[in-house]
């Protein structure tokens, strides 16, 4: 028991700055949503519609950053820090190429938005926001790679402070560009895009400065930065990032389709969905940060052939995750109306949001289990079967059931969220079962 508690303490200490870092990134979206919500319901609904589209390309960036984290963690665990530096260098090359491709994808999708049949008032204001956020990918994707590189070597704190600085900067820039100050005209939703873009580029510059001047990371930095990519390392990162991105596309894609379907119920339902999703994703950062620590620690333990330690890490993390998400669930059940009212004064939107948050409470418990199980499997480099599991649970169960409840049973947005919760429950059970089978074979 004492050994289990020691492992739990190590996981918690590593997870703490990772959780804070994830929350700081979510605060960028949260502050946008809060401040845009004060402009009006249409701007809030447009933010929901635009962010639903942006989540899809964002999943490729997350997949690459996780792949870099796993590679660096395995090299670090086996004492090969020079190889970790090559994972960083090649990861940054891939990140720039990926960012350019994602920018093109976002720009190319804008003329096609009308085919998704959003409310006309939403379609009128969302394109400029998408252009600015798409351009910010040039900063966001490399930022995520650098962040993963530092965290995989158990050096997350300075990255956290830089991220928090970026959040504060974004809030200040939001106030200037959304509402208009210091001679800048009020730009509404477009201003949120401008502010986020500027904050992301400044944050990237700060991270690069830290990376190049950190004594603790110096031994793992590339000896030569400007040289041709290493085909072997690029293939390894791409091979790992592809199914990881696939997992995220499956889950985020399900939420994106849900947002488009919920848009059929009107601007109020779409705005309520955006508030509920923002809340759910914000509290999801707690188990996500914990799961990132699990991936890193499992990678270290696997590379050192420590099977018992792997089991102890997983058991402790699952217990912590359930405790954290139970607290969040209770907050949504008993404080749903106060939470919704903090985003908007529209009573119709508040009413729909409260009913969705009651479902989110159950959703959170299931999400905490599945994200930690999936993270542990990633630490073991098991990514293909979990991808198939997630596809079946979200696209063959969650979306069809949600659509049936939303449209046929006339439950509206609440029906779509109920379907997502059912699919997530199945994913939690399946991934946990696979994880424990894998742990018996380590």
The value of Rg in angstroms is 21 Å
Percent of sequence in beta strands:
under 5%
Task: Tell me roughly what share of residues is in helical segments.
Answer: over 70%
> Looking at the structure, what is the overall shape?
globular
Number of domains: 1
Q: What is the CA–CA distance across the termini?
A: 21 Å
Q: What is the strand tally?
A: 0
Order of helices and strands: HHHHHHHHHHHHH
Structural class: mainly alpha
Give the low-confidence spans.
Answer: none
Q: Please outline the major beta sheet.
A: none
- Number of helix segments? 13
Mean pLDDT: 82
Characterise the protein shown here.
This protein has 442 residues and is mainly alpha-helical. The chain has one domain (2-441). Helices cover 84% and strands 0% of the residues. The protein contains 13 helices and no strands. α1 (2-37) runs parallel beside α10 and α6 packs antiparallel against α7. The longest helix is centred in the first third of the chain and has 37 residues, at 41-77. The protein is globular and about 55 Å long. The two termini are 21 Å apart. The model has no long low-confidence stretch (mean pLDDT 82). Its main location: membrane. It is a multi-pass membrane protein. This is Multidrug-efflux transporter.
């Amino acid at each position: 028991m004492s050994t289990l508690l020691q492992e739990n303490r190590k996981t918690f200490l590593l997870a703490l700055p990772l959780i804070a870092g994830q929350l700081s990134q979510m605060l960028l979206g949260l502050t946008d949503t809060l401040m845009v919500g004060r402009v009006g319901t249409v701007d809030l609904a447009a933010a929901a519609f635009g962010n639903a589209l942006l989540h899809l390309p964002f999943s490729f960036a997350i997949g690459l950053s996780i792949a870099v984290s796993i590679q660096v963690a395995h090299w670090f665990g086996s004492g090969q820090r020079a190889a970790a530096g090559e994972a960083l260098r090649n990861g940054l090359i891939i990140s720039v190429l990926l960012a350019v491709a994602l920018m093109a994808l976002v720009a190319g999708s804008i003329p096609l938005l009308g085919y998704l049949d959003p409310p006309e008032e939403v379609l009128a204001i969302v394109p400029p926001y998408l252009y600015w956020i798409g351009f910010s990918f040039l900063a966001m994707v490399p930022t995520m790679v650098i962040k993963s590189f530092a965290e995989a070597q158990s050096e997350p704190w300075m990255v956290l402070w830089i991220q928090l600085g970026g959040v504060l900067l974004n809030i200040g820039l939001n106030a200037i560009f959304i509402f208009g100050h210091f001679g800048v005209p009020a730009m509404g939703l477009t201003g949120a895009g401008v502010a986020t873009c500027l904050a992301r580029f400044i944050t990237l510059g700060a991270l690069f400065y830290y990376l190049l001047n950190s004594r603790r990371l110096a031994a793992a930095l590339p000896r030569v930065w400007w040289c041709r990519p290493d085909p072997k390392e690029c293939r390894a990162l791409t091979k790992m990032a592809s199914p990881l991105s696939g997992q995220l596309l499956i889950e985020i894609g399900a939420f994106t389709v849900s947002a488009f379907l919920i848009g059929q119920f009107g601007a109020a339902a779409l705005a309520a969905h955006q508030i509920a999703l923002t809340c759910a994703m914000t509290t999801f950062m707690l188990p996500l940060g914990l799961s990132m620590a699990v991936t890193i620690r499992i990678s270290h333990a696997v590379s050192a052939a420590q099977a018992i330690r792997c089991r102890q890490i997983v058991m402790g993390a699952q217990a912590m995750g359930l405790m954290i998400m139970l607290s969040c669930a209770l907050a949504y059940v008993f404080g749903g109306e106060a939470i919704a009212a903090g985003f908007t004064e529209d009573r119709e939107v508040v009413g729909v949001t409260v009913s969705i948050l009651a479902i989110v409470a159950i959703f959170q418990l299931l999400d905490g289990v599945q994200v930690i199980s999936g993270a542990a499997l990633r630490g073991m480099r098991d990514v293909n079967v979990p991808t198939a599991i997630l596809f079946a649970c979200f696209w063959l169960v969650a979306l069809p059931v949600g659509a049936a409840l939303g449209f046929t049973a006339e439950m509206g947005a609440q029906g779509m969220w109920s379907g997502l919760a059912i699919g997530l429950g199945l994913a939690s059970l399946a991934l946990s079962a696979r994880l424990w089978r894998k742990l018996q074979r380590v």
